[in-house]
Design goal:
The structure is a homodimer of 222-residue chains.
Chain A lengths: L1 H21 L6 H8 L3 H7 L3 H24 L11 H23 L6 H9 L4 H27 L8 H22 L8 H9 L6 H7 L9
Helix pairs in contact in A: 1-2, 1-4, 4-7, 5-7, 6-7, 7-8, 8-9
Chain lengths: 222, 222
């Protein structure tokens, strides 16, 4: 049983890498099993179908990312540092950029956001995947919404609808990650923070300063 | 020769629809020819490979879209109306929303942006496609950049780097179109205009008003 569980993990891990590099449709079960180093027969022991594997890859990736986002964005941080809500948002972008850069250093290519990639590739074909991705993006928007609401209570932003503002921030993130993938270059992600402040009518560093900085500088690392 | 040219157009048209619905990798040449109503043998008379077809679909789509963007964004409009640069940008978002809605009414699904879809699906696999998509996005950013520069000269926006600002506007567009596809709902595109103004530090309707409206309202049709 130890060995079979290990095979499931290997299949998931290989599938996640391959989907990140080449998308879902381009992959076959045989190729995934070969990359995982497990016999093809094992696949259907663990996964009913390739679609079931895609859902498992999505869930696995979200489990890790959700933990990261909660650690960064939660007000109840163990470290006690970065209690300021806008500082937490800024860290989310910095860690996103660092994560994409680390991925590029690992495999040579910026792989982008797994959820964004699969949204554009699969959501019109596979309703189960669309539904799961909707839940994940809603959860992301909700987490960002909560931080914006905190910032609003502190009068650090001027939005009137925190939910829509959060959606726009996540949309900007997805759009810039798309460019990072297209150019295989993470430097575009450096503008996320100033863009976020602009979208929120933020005044973390003083209204005038923020306005000047808005989309005006691309500094790697935020 | 009339018939063969017709076959090429049919293949391109069928391929564009199918790629919009299901992506590139999921499609086979046989399926494309069947949808086009042409014998499979015709395919390789017109296209060296499936990759060559993808490039032709991209070029065909861009030829049309470039003409539309130029018509909307150019200062030398025949109609003479909407000479104000920010009004032209607003019209770009309105027509994008209308186009996605018309597509949804036609086939039941919001198909999103062909270039964004193929960027996330193909750019790490096929360098020729990545290069072509880079050129297209650069051209889009350049067109938006020119309009922002005009608005800046009229002191209607406050950005310091019009190129980066243009890239952020196109990134926001791609991110919101991703959500429109995910939810099969174009209403998210209604926030593009207020978000664009926020990103540009725009004051088309007065600084205070714009700040209040920033990402605060989603009005279909901009």
């Amino acid at each position: 049983m130890g060995r079979t569980s290990d095979a499931r993990v290997k299949i998931l891990s290989a599938a996640q890498s391959l989907i990140g590099l080449r998308g879902y449709s381009a992959l076959g079960v045989a190729e995934i099993c070969k990359a995982a180093g497990v016999p093809k027969g094992s696949f259907y022991y663990f996964f009913e179908s390739k679609e079931a594997l895609a859902l498992a890859v999505i869930d696995e990736h979200w489990t890790g990312q959700q933990r990261t986002w909660e650690r960064i964005l939660s007000a109840d941080t163990d470290s006690g540092a970065d209690a300021d809500p806008l500082d937490r948002l800024r860290r989310l972008f910095e860690e996103t950029e660092a994560g994409q850069l680390a991925g590029q250093e690992g495999c040579g290519s910026v792989s982008g956001c797994l959820f964004g990639n699969l949204t554009l590739e699969m959501s019109n074909q596979t309703e189960s995947v669309r539904a799961r991705l909707q839940e994940i993006f809603e959860a992301q928007v909700e987490m960002v919404d909560a931080v914006i609401a905190e910032a609003l209570a502190r009068q650090e932003v001027t939005v009137t609808d925190t939910r829509e503002a959060a959606r726009s921030v996540v949309a900007q993130l997805e759009g810039q990650v798309l460019f990072a993938k297209l150019y295989n270059n993470t430097r575009h992600l450096g503008s996320l923070w100033t863009n976020c402040l602009a979208l929120l009518g933020g005044r973390a560093t003083g209204e005038a300063t923020v306005r000047e900085a808005t989309v005006g500088e691309v500094t790697v690392g935020g």
